[in-house]
## 1
Amino acid sequence: MTDVALPAPAPTASVDRERLTAFGFALPSFLILAGLFALPLVLLLGVSVIGPDGLTFVNYRRLFGTAFYLGVIWNSLRLGVLTTLITLAISYPASFALARARGAVRSVLLATLFLPLAASVIVKAFAWTILLRSDGVVNATLIALGIIEDPIRMIFTETALVVGAVNIFLPFMILPIYAVVAQLDPRYAEAAATLGASPVTAFCRVIVPLTLPGVIAGVALVFSLSVSAYVVPTLLIGEKYPTLATTIAKAYLLAREPGFGAAAGVVLLTIAIIVVALSARLGREPA
Amino acid sequence: MTRFAVVFSWVMAIALALFLLAPLAVIAAASFSPTPVFDLPLTGASLRWYGRIARLDGFWPSLWLSLQIALLSTMLSLVCGTLAAIAITRGKLPGAGVFATALVSPLMMPGLVLGIALLQYFRAIGFTATWSALLLAHLVVTLPYVARTMIAGLARFDFTLVEAARTLGCTYPGGVLRVMVPVLAPSFLIAGLFSFLASFDNYPVSIFLADVRTKTLPIRMLQYIEEAPDPTLAALSTLILLGTVVLLFISDRAVGLHRMAGTAD
């Protein structure tokens, strides 16, 4: 009995010490997260519902009760959905080529993903304003190809906005999909074929479910980034297309309406939280 | 894959690569424009816009500020994030999974909302030091990048290696420094690179915390574009781009870009 019971206290003490060390290691990050992220967001929620005479929902009524601000929310969601769908449609097939590439070709392709990712959003949006001007490169090319006769107005249109947003957020879609596709065992597709599945069936019932985690991660990331984009709409479409993000900036930087800006911020935050929660849930379910 | 699928995916990949590079190529081309408007294709080449960068209003203080904030927030995040990642991956921390999710969550949150939340918060507690406010805010921006990469890196690290070093006579900190840090060097490099770029390029958080005299480079650049866009800005962007190419090239040599794509998910 004794020689079985004796070693027991020692591990307990060392487990306690290890746990204490773990707490100590986690503490600085915990403090940053609690003090500079969670607490400010709670305060923001407070600012959005507290007026000069106590609790008020006037800011939310203004957001959800006026046609203009409902349009603003719609604009944000529309930008998010369009950007997500188009980036997905481009990234999904492209990631398979990327996953098959080897050596120098792979390095070059990956560099074309990382370079724009590392370049400033402001720089890229600025480049699109040059590209899409009526005397810009895109118009000149279309005219030279005989597709159009006169330059079409592209900058400050929704097309410009979506093209710019797709361009800027594409790497965030393809990287998570690529990470999953690159680890896909080609034998799964072969096994499906051996078992008599047509290429289409094999794709729908084997490849798609296996790559779904990457798709979900990419969709969640691109949607939450594009729904709250600020620089892209500011430079590529401007006042014509107010979004929640531009409304927040205006409320704080120009109109000095922190309560209203905070309410718009809470709405945007809620959208982001729903997307994250949904993606976490979908990601966990067995494919 | 069928032949059609292979060809289709290659066409999409090449189109995607060209589409992604288009704005960068345009910026580089416009920076050599001989005229103040962006006439493309170029009718000649000139380097005069590069000479004007230094004379942009408020350029040097903004560059210096952005470098300071990006470097300091990256270093602090590397330390805090790595310690947290060790606590999480060693499995001795109660609620490690929830903590890991929480640590990465600011990545998915709209930057603009974090910006106004911090603005309100700093006002409420009477914290008015702009420089320090920017640094603290950028800690929240950079920490998730470090935490994500280091948790992924440490999950594959064999901690018994540190024990082995101790058995062979190393002290615990010595074991960490001489065994763990070299093994995890690629993760550190990736985490540091992403974190530095996230801070250096940040606009939505900084804009609410900056003041007239303390403006980061992205704020200054957007201001130049809105006030008087001329090829000087393209020249500046090209130089920043070149710096990034060098950073990426070094990372590719040291780690391999495909590894960065994997761990940076």
## 2
Amino acid sequence: MGEVTEEGGLFAEEEGLQMYQTQWDRFKLVVRRLWKNKAAVLGFFVVVFLVMFCVLAPYIAPYSPLKLNIPERLQPPSMSHLLGTDQFGRDILSRLLYGGRLSLGVGIISVVLGLIPGVLLGLSSGFLRGNVDAAIMRGVDIMMALPSILLALLIVTVLGPGLINTMIAVGIGGIPSMIRLVRGKVLSIRETEYIEAARSIGANDWRIMIRHILPNCAAPIIVVATLRLPSAIIMAASLSFIGLGAQAPTPEWGAMLASGRHFLTTSWWICTFPGLAIFLAVLGLNMFGDGLRDALDPKLKS
Amino acid sequence: MMTMSEDLLRIEDLVVQYETEEGIVQAVDNVNLTVKRGEVMGLVGESGCGKSTLALSIMGLLARPMGRIVSGHIFLEDVDLVGLSQDELRKIRGKSISMIFQDPTASLNPVFTVGEQLVEAFKAHEGKIDAEEARARAVEILRKVGISDPETRLSQYPHEFSGGMKQRAMIAIGLANNPLMLIADEPTTNLDVTIQAQILELMRALKKEFDSSILIITHNLGVVAELADRVGVMYAGRMAEVGTADQIFHDPVHPYTKGLISSLPGFKSRSDRLPIIPGRVPNLVRPPPGCRFHPRCTYASDRCSREECKGQIVEGRFIACHTALRMLEEAAGDQV
Amino acid sequence: MSGKTLIEVKGLKKYFPVEAGFFKRKVADLKAVDDVSFTINKGESLGLVGESGCGKTTVGRCVLRLIEPTEGQVVFEGDDITKLEKKELQEYRSRMQLIFQDPYSSLNPRLTVGDIITEPLLIHGLAEKKEINDRIRRLMLDVGLSPSHSKRYPHEFSGGQKQRISIARALSVVPSFVVADEPVAALDMSIRAQILNLMKDLQDKYDLTYLIISHDLTVIKHMCSRIMVMYLGNLVEVAGRESLFSRPYHPYSFALISAVPIPDPLIKKKRIILTGDVPAPINPPSGCKFHPRCPYAKDICSEEAPRFQEIERGHFVACHFASDLEPPEGSIVEF
């Protein structure tokens, strides 16, 4: 069994076993909850497949995405071109695969770009309060007064078109909502007893913010970041669609939509497939993100 | 000639389970309990012992679908509450049995006045009721629970009441329809000690005035000693011991009861270091085999780790402990 | 027991401004602590008892300067710490610690037990990295936990064990003074005894001085040699344990002691029931704050606040009629 101390605290391996959750078990619990949510599972696999295909693009794309082939232009889907060709004879499938790397990549990078300043500003705002908080929140209010697409447009107009500036613009667009989210969580955490305990043992503000508050915000940050991905992808695609993002001949999905829109009625495949790809990516991420939020919510019982 | 039996409530072999993410919890495991008419039965135990689950089961208020009564009977005056439909249970709730809870702030609806909530209690069981008459009854019952100036208080909202008054209001609602039985789940735990004293006095007075039986559930042994005629001690979902208050406090037999009573701080003849029960309450998803208390029990024998003691009634007391029963037998044998 | 003064609190006041209206103007003060003075002797366990709203938690926090006093002085081991800057206060933080009431919320759920316990050491630079593991081991054994669990997280432990972790954290810096705010209120009965015994053992081992704050008189009576009774921001009675329980002088103390339910069904006492509710510290009554509920109140009680006087050796009370009053017959049962 185990030793009994003088105080009678019974401790033993059995006791440890009786408490059923190590960190690994918690992770497994989240996974189990996710697994029960069929929509989330579906979304997850859809996204995984898309990402896999795009990552493997150099190996599985049958043609070069940029190579012009005028004689074979506007071919409907066939054995040689599974998804058809566009007005320049370029293979849609190959462009889709390579383009995915850009569309998905831009989405991920912009979210990450927005994450770091968003989290830091949110932490400072929520924890330090006072003037710092007031200043940051006014900034957030101003930014949120603009529709995010307009904000992105503004930034890209100032910085100039191109994929990198698109990432910056979309990334910045996500900062205000992240600040608000983190700040809200920080406000509730800072009143807990363990923060007071941290103060009582002599921890300074910085230590409390990074070591005590931040790890406890992790869950909602992950969820929001995951749910922001689909909007980031759409925004990047939209910017490309109106010509401010990826420039021709870059095979970004939004750009593909743009270049194919004249042929919508005649050669439907040029627009449909990129559109479908965007749709699947966004839908998959949304379903997975929703499931993730539910799975991470400690209050929800199955 | 007594046509009504003395037993108001008879719980027989009740098994209640909860489904949790970690597995199935046997929250109440083959519990037997009777409450006589007009008596105050105290149900004590620590967290996780199943006492609240037992109360909720009686009321049919288990959180579905996670919690459910697996088997057993709850006879209220010969009607088995287990297996009744929700509609039938609703007719009983608030009329034959009422329940008051630990936190009156959470149980009183903040958007209705206290008077409205009282009248609703009347209406729920009597259908149409004359407004004037309802008001008069409401005033009367508020007065009975010691709320001063009841006419004014009727039209006030719960947040205008203090903690002690809210609890009184809850008791009023509970007693509104003169129930056969009132279940009080930790009625004074959230209250300051001087307010707790008020409420205990109130309950003692009400005990005389209303005929209701009271099932009082608490972890506070002092409260139980004050109010209860008989006491049931639960541990990890099972009933360890049932006896009169005198028996339980002065001559406890089950090792858990003994340990509990001797470990209370601050009372006479407590030495500097309190006697303790080593270890802690078991995880109910994977309870210890045999007697659930045996890992912590100084009297545990080999049998205790293999075989649960189903319990026997000895001289009017229910005892579920192999060792205790054996010792009683030997003592009785010695006397022969 | 040296009887040396460890802490002196003089004229402590803590007022919280109450704001109302669109411009958030201050309309009143919530006088949580309203002129409290006391000393704590080295090695003793001083109890601070009172009901909700009496200000006892605020007193504990003020003594540690986790809340800034509005007025008054706190002298710790001879040094006035009331007005120190953060940096200077830092050094004192390692000498005075707090054990929190709620074991479920006083431990950071994202840190391992080992990290939680040794964080104070790292902050104050009191241990080398290589010593840390050894310290974890020794601390956990001291509080009755298995060192093999040091990499686990708080939620894996029971309430009683969490409280042990909390205690270990406080002890890691070997403080001279520990404030325990309702140390067992959130725990099951059978665990309370374990934790109280642990606190006593640790007091012996580490030569600690305790300020134990609780609303539970039974806990206070068991743990404390000297007890302060607080009501609505003021101390109403201070006495040694035997003295207080055998012969209290303040009417509130009568009621408080009388109210404790005794786990013995044969003992019937004629309990003193106070009328009215425990008031909130906004707009407290004039004069003696207890007078609206006091069965012995006279005119003077609403006009003038009573002074704290020594009515017996070491026994202080704040009541105009202290020497004339006695607890009613049968209301106080020795428990």
